[in-house]
UniProtKB/TrEMBL annotation:
Name by which UniProt lists this protein: ABC transporter permease
Membrane-spanning residues: 15-38, 58-78, 99-128, 140-161, 173-193, 213-234
Keyword Transmembrane helix belongs to the record: yes
Keywords: Membrane, Transmembrane, Transmembrane helix
Superkingdom of origin: Bacteria
Organism name: Streptococcus gallolyticus
Amino acid sequence: MLSYFKAEWLKTRKIAILSVGLIFLALSSFIGLANFFINYNVLIDNQISRVLWGQLTFYNAQLLFPAMLAIFSGMIIIPEFKRKTLEMLRVNCISIPKLIINKLVLSLILVAVIQGLLFLIYLVTLLISQTSFNISDLLLFFKATILSIVGSSSILMIHYYIVSKTKNFAKSVGIAAIGSFIGFIFIMLGGVLNKFFPYSQPMIALRSRSLDSMSATELIIFILVNIFYTYIFYRLTVQTLVKKQ
């Protein structure tokens, strides 16, 4: 299994993918921070640090994050079709299930870098704005950052399947944009459906709206939903690629 990951690590254009992630992070952070500072004077002092997190992460998680994940998955798997790797895999008896698992792991590592930078932006903004904060809030949002990486797995796997099925990068990103829009609709309807909607999982993980820790029930639902989508679309992706061999 380690040899598969090493191969993925070496052949993947990590700098290019992270550059895309940084562009999305910069754009969403600009929108969130602009809203935060515009309304800064009307915020309640002991809630400012939480409001900052909500503004910074909501636009990141619900508006642009799904499209970014679609781009990540496309940039990682589309070159396999261009290189005709699937034909070579058949000749060399390489395991497609292991290949897909390691692509997902690599994707999550790259997502972890971007999400780590998001948390760093939050910390730097707290310091620059001289906003008071509680250590408990920092721990809460650090945990939320980690969970957002978990919440990315379902979207990544969905788009690995879409790209494997269609070989169409633009269609995959378009579906992600539609998913983000549907997530907004679910929020306006009350947010209950978001718990089970794959494109809302990063936002739920980041606690962008509730700004408090998940209850045990919420955490169980979150984990099960992401396991479900990740496994189902992992199986579909493997089946699709095996048929294409």
